[in-house]
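Incident log, structure service

09:12 report received: a user says their structure output differs between two submissions of the same chain.
09:20 pulled the input from the user's history:
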Amino acid sequence: MSKPRIIRYALIAFLLLTSISFAETREIKLHKVIKKDTLWDISRKELKDPFLWPAIWKENRWITNPHWIYPGQTIKIPIYLLQKEKPKEEAAPKPAEVSEEPVQEEVKKEPVPVPIKKQPLVSMNTLMASGYIADSIPGVGTISDSAAGQRIFGNDDVVYVTVDHPAKVGDKFYVIEASEEVEHPITGKDIGYVITICGIAEIVKAKKSETVAKITKCFREININDALVPYYDVKLPMTTGHFRSPGINGMVIATGNNFKASMLDIIYIDKGCKDGIEAGDIFKTLAVDTHAVQNGVIQVISCRDHTATAIIKSSNMPISPGNIFTRMDKN
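09:34 re-ran on a clean worker, output below:
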């Protein structure tokens, strides 16, 4: 074989290896938008987490408004965000060593208990964006404006904020959104407000004339006039994979989309930690009319004193405020 041909083949092989290496580190999938597509739905389908939709928006900066995408458009999906499990290599057994020493009597050892490995119950994105019910609307300031004239914000966007007390560079706040006041579906009693955590903002400029912050983390879309509350550490609930279903009955009092919810949506119930609820607890939900019909299975992901936040694990019809929850049937 001639020397030029060998060099040409070597160059082709190098380019192929380089492209394969790049693809492994940053996989992108092209998605052609169809009718009724939203970034939320695409993120749920492709990335298995609807709250990662800001990552898709960031990958496609030509989309000026994430609420408006149109059939026929092609967008890039950053599927490299999916965690890939790498199988552990099994160590090859070592050959038995032949011992010339006299055989000693075997000493029986007590089995050492294997520690149970715990894993997060949900992702931090899901936990933060799911929110909670509060008696009142907290807040020490608001997002007031942006230099670019935007009204919707995501990761790394810069905003002007108004705060009740002087802030300094480095101060962090949660950006929150509050619902209308929630009433109990049966008693009509005021329960509070659904507070959803939209993201984290950090002060980058603090002067008497203006205070500027940068969105360092976005869990869901952030809007003008969203409120600010002081930052605090949040710990993920951990689980061994074994879940309770205690004999506690209660009612769905609100849903994340304000009316009806289905699988992977968020709902809020009228029982909490002081009522015996724990993160990880599983219940079935029932729609009660002429008959009580099971319409889903929910799992608690966080709880406060007398309310809790849950995610819908499965449903065969929408789950609505007024549906009841109860323990799973015994097998």
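09:41 both user submissions now match this output. Likely a transient worker issue. Closing.
09:42 reviewer note: Confidence is low (pLDDT under 50) at residues 16-24, 84-91. Residues 3-25 form the longest helix (23 residues).
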